[in-house]
Amino acid sequence: MAQILYQRLGEIDGIRKLVDDVVEAHMHNPVIQARFLPYRDRPEDLANAKKHLTDFFAAGAGGPIDYTGRSLLDAHRGMNISAGEYMAATDDIMDQLERHGIDEETRKDVLVIAFALKDEIIAV
């Protein structure tokens, strides 16, 4: 039986580690780091953001997780995220997937999802 995306990403522990590394990559990415670096001074907010990202990603990947955070539209409303910023974030995600040893088919599946969600994030 084929594994669902959630399983191919390492279930909750694998997704949590992936989110940790993606957020760290965002903090070093000159295109988007200004949006993420302030979290370094607010560890509780950083932990909360990572939990929401992990739950969102895990639930969206088919895991037995209840995502209780805001919708993508509500979470990004008023942030004026540009297409370039969106692509920089997506590139960080893809780079970290590869770094974590995630196979090419799974990376492609994540990329399809990322592009499907794009309109809910860019300049809303």
Strand content: under 5%
Number of beta strands? 0
User: How many helical elements?
Assistant: 7
Q: What best-fitting shape do the alpha-carbon axes yield?
A: globular
What integer value in Å does the Rg equal?
A: 14 Å
Order of helices and strands: HHHHHHH
How many individual domains?
1
Binding site for heme: 52, 76
Protein name: Hemoglobin
Keywords: Heme, Iron, Metal-binding, Transport
Organism: Jhaorihella thermophila
How would you describe what is shown here?
InterPro entries: Globin-like_sf, Globin/Proto, Globin_bac-like_CS, Hemoglobin_trunc. Keywords: Heme, Iron, Metal-binding, Transport. This protein has 124 residues and is mainly alpha-helical. The chain has a single domain, classed as Orthogonal Bundle (Globin-like). It contains seven helices and no strands. It has helices at 5-8, 11-28, 33-36, 43-60, 72-76, 83-99, 104-117. Helix 2 (11-28) packs across helix 4 (43-60), helix 2 packs across helix 6 (83-99) and helix 6 (83-99) runs antiparallel to helix 7 (104-117). The longest helix has 18 residues, at 11-28.
